[in-house]
Amino acid sequence: MEKVVVMNNIHKHYDNKQIETHALQGISLEINQGEFVAITGPSGCGKSTLLSIMGLMDKASEGDYRIANIVTSGLKVDQRTHIRNQHIGYVFQSFNLIDSLTVFENVALPLEHRGAKKDEIKEKVEEVLAQVDMLHRKDYRPNQLSGGQQQRIAIARALVGNPDLILVDEPTGNLDSKNGDQVMSLLETLNRNGSTIVMVTHNPADADYANRTINLFDGAVVAESVRAA
Q1: 3-state secondary structure 24-52
Q2: Is 216 left (phi over 0), alpha (psi -120 to 50) or beta?
Q3: Is residue 136 packed enough to be buried (19+ CB in 10 Å), middle (13-18) or exposed (0-12)?
Q4: For 46-87, what is each residue's pLDDT tens digit?
Q5: Are 39 and 197 in contact (CB under 8 A)?
Q6: What is the distance between the alpha carbons of residues 155 and 159, in angstroms, rounded to a whole number?
Q7: How far is it, in rounded angstroms, from Cα 204 to Cα 227?
Q8: CA atoms of 65 and 70, how far apart (whole Å)
Q9: Does the global pTM surpass 0.70?
Q10: Please, are residues 1 and 33 in contact by the beta-carbon 8 Å criterion?
Q11: Is the CB of residue 214 less than 8 Å from the CB of residue 29?
């Protein structure tokens, strides 16, 4: 099975004058194509730091990280940005949609950065909006939508570039339970259709949707479990 993520002995430390904080301490893990992995653990255990390094938003202090067989250490900022655009979809807890743009324009952004043609953008954006059941809202602006609808748009934007890996940070953190359940069901469906998903969550009910759970504590992997098929 093809490995989408390979991390070997990843450390992350922050120097703040007299204090050095070790956010991650020697994490090694692999994620295969088609997996749905939940990363769990208490606040401050390093979950979001790990996701940021996986998404090339941050760099490890030590260790090796490969995404889709690309070695990422030593890359410049523009190279990391290019790899992120080509291979990674990111869903933020706070949605990170641009209020001055329509739903269609928000979802189109990753393809525009690639220099895709207009007709290709239109076809692909409408396809992913239909997948998340939001095509009928394509001309709305984010502030005209509910939190659950905004999260669906954020997922569509992550999907539109057909990434090797979708990273999801606390997908139900800003949603009520009904909208949260709908978003988790959508992620489960996307995974069933072939998307590789890594999700950070503190919510055990959300983690139950994943087929593998990795528990972090104090920046280290302390347990791992696989859900029975």
Answers
A1: EEEEEEEEECCCEEEEECCCCCCHHHHHH
A2: beta
A3: exposed
A4: 999 999 999 999 999 999 999 999 999 889 999 999 999 999
A5: no
A6: 6
A7: 13
A8: 8
A9: yes
A10: yes
A11: yes
> Which residues does 223 contact at the CB level (< 8 Å), separation at least 6?
214, 215
- Any idea what the Cα angle at residue 215 is, between residues 46 and 20, rounded to 5°? 25
In contact, 38 and 212? CB cutoff 8 Å:
yes
Please state, in angstroms and rounded to a whole number, the distance separating the CA atoms of residues 52 and 221: 16
Shortest CA distance to 10 belongs to which of 30, 32, 25? 25
